[in-house]
Amino acid sequence: MGTNADGYERTVPMIAIDEVIKEKELNGPYPIKVDAQGAELNVLDGCQQTLRDTEVVVLEVSMFQFMKDAPQFHDVVLYMKERGFVAYDIILGWNRPLDNALGQIDVVFVKESGKFRENHSYATMNLSH
Question: Which molecular-function annotations from GO does this UniProt entry contain (predicted)?
Protein backbone atom coordinates (compact mmCIF):
# COMPACT_ATOMS: atom_id res chain seq x y z
CA MET A 1 0.00 0.00 0.00
CA GLY A 2 3.05 2.25 -0.02
CA THR A 3 5.28 3.83 2.57
CA ASN A 4 2.43 5.80 4.19
CA ALA A 5 0.88 2.54 5.38
CA ASP A 6 3.80 0.10 5.23
CA GLY A 7 6.67 2.29 6.35
CA TYR A 8 10.10 1.83 4.81
CA GLU A 9 11.68 -1.54 4.14
CA ARG A 10 14.85 -2.15 6.10
CA THR A 11 17.09 -5.05 6.90
CA VAL A 12 17.45 -6.13 10.51
CA PRO A 13 19.48 -8.91 12.11
CA MET A 14 17.57 -12.10 12.89
CA ILE A 15 18.10 -15.01 15.18
CA ALA A 16 16.01 -18.16 15.04
CA ILE A 17 14.00 -19.15 18.10
CA ASP A 18 15.54 -22.63 17.85
CA GLU A 19 18.99 -21.02 18.23
CA VAL A 20 17.93 -19.06 21.33
CA ILE A 21 16.40 -22.15 22.95
CA LYS A 22 19.60 -24.11 22.30
CA GLU A 23 21.92 -21.28 23.39
CA LYS A 24 20.01 -20.62 26.63
CA GLU A 25 19.51 -24.37 27.26
CA LEU A 26 15.78 -23.87 27.85
CA ASN A 27 13.42 -26.81 28.33
CA GLY A 28 9.86 -27.11 27.03
CA PRO A 29 7.01 -27.09 26.84
CA TYR A 30 7.12 -23.62 25.30
CA PRO A 31 4.29 -21.15 24.67
CA ILE A 32 4.80 -19.19 21.46
CA LYS A 33 3.16 -15.83 20.61
CA VAL A 34 3.99 -14.18 17.30
CA ASP A 35 2.88 -10.79 15.99
CA ALA A 36 5.29 -9.94 13.19
CA GLN A 37 3.19 -7.88 10.77
CA GLY A 38 2.80 -10.61 8.17
CA ALA A 39 6.05 -12.46 8.84
CA GLU A 40 4.57 -14.92 11.35
CA LEU A 41 5.31 -17.98 9.22
CA ASN A 42 8.89 -16.81 8.68
CA VAL A 43 9.27 -16.67 12.46
CA LEU A 44 7.81 -20.17 12.80
CA ASP A 45 10.20 -21.44 10.12
CA GLY A 46 12.96 -20.58 12.60
CA CYS A 47 11.51 -22.67 15.42
CA GLN A 48 10.66 -26.05 13.90
CA GLN A 49 12.53 -27.91 16.65
CA THR A 50 10.89 -25.77 19.34
CA LEU A 51 7.43 -26.50 17.90
CA ARG A 52 7.93 -30.18 18.72
CA ASP A 53 7.93 -29.24 22.43
CA THR A 54 5.13 -26.67 22.15
CA GLU A 55 1.44 -27.13 23.01
CA VAL A 56 0.14 -23.59 22.30
CA VAL A 57 0.94 -21.06 19.55
CA VAL A 58 -0.84 -17.69 19.30
CA LEU A 59 -0.56 -15.93 15.95
CA GLU A 60 -1.88 -12.68 14.57
CA VAL A 61 -3.55 -13.70 11.32
CA SER A 62 -4.81 -11.47 8.51
CA MET A 63 -7.99 -12.06 6.55
CA PHE A 64 -6.57 -10.00 3.65
CA GLN A 65 -3.07 -9.58 2.25
CA PHE A 66 -2.26 -6.28 3.94
CA MET A 67 1.52 -6.65 3.61
CA LYS A 68 3.58 -7.77 0.61
CA ASP A 69 3.98 -11.58 0.58
CA ALA A 70 2.11 -11.92 3.89
CA PRO A 71 0.04 -15.08 4.44
CA GLN A 72 -3.71 -14.95 4.87
CA PHE A 73 -5.92 -16.94 7.25
CA HIS A 74 -6.18 -20.01 5.00
CA ASP A 75 -2.40 -20.08 4.47
CA VAL A 76 -1.72 -19.98 8.21
CA VAL A 77 -4.28 -22.68 9.07
CA LEU A 78 -2.75 -25.00 6.43
CA TYR A 79 0.81 -24.25 7.57
CA MET A 80 -0.07 -25.04 11.18
CA LYS A 81 -2.02 -28.20 10.26
CA GLU A 82 1.00 -29.49 8.32
CA ARG A 83 2.99 -29.11 11.56
CA GLY A 84 0.43 -30.86 13.76
CA PHE A 85 -1.46 -27.83 15.11
CA VAL A 86 -5.13 -26.90 14.75
CA ALA A 87 -7.16 -23.78 15.51
CA TYR A 88 -8.44 -23.81 19.10
CA ASP A 89 -9.72 -20.32 19.82
CA ILE A 90 -9.94 -16.77 18.51
CA ILE A 91 -9.13 -14.25 21.22
CA LEU A 92 -9.11 -10.87 19.50
CA GLY A 93 -10.29 -9.37 16.24
CA TRP A 94 -9.79 -6.07 14.46
CA ASN A 95 -11.97 -4.66 11.71
CA ARG A 96 -10.42 -2.71 8.87
CA PRO A 97 -11.51 0.94 8.61
CA LEU A 98 -12.09 0.65 4.84
CA ASP A 99 -15.37 -1.27 5.14
CA ASN A 100 -15.46 -2.59 8.71
CA ALA A 101 -14.74 -6.13 7.48
CA LEU A 102 -12.85 -8.40 9.87
CA GLY A 103 -9.23 -7.73 9.03
CA GLN A 104 -7.05 -9.49 11.60
CA ILE A 105 -7.53 -11.96 14.42
CA ASP A 106 -5.36 -13.55 17.08
CA VAL A 107 -5.76 -17.30 16.67
CA VAL A 108 -4.77 -19.83 19.31
CA PHE A 109 -3.41 -23.03 17.78
CA VAL A 110 -2.86 -26.16 19.85
CA LYS A 111 -1.14 -29.44 19.11
CA GLU A 112 -3.73 -31.60 17.37
CA SER A 113 -2.87 -34.64 19.48
CA GLY A 114 -1.91 -32.63 22.57
CA LYS A 115 -3.31 -32.10 26.03
CA PHE A 116 -5.83 -29.42 25.01
CA ARG A 117 -7.60 -31.84 22.66
CA GLU A 118 -7.61 -34.96 24.78
CA ASN A 119 -11.41 -34.84 25.05
CA HIS A 120 -13.68 -34.12 22.09
CA SER A 121 -16.99 -34.17 23.97
CA TYR A 122 -19.28 -31.19 23.59
CA ALA A 123 -20.96 -30.71 26.99
CA THR A 124 -19.96 -33.53 29.28
CA MET A 125 -16.86 -35.58 29.78
CA ASN A 126 -16.90 -38.71 27.64
CA LEU A 127 -15.76 -41.38 30.08
CA SER A 128 -15.93 -44.28 27.63
CA HIS A 129 -12.50 -43.55 26.11
Answer: O-methyltransferase activity
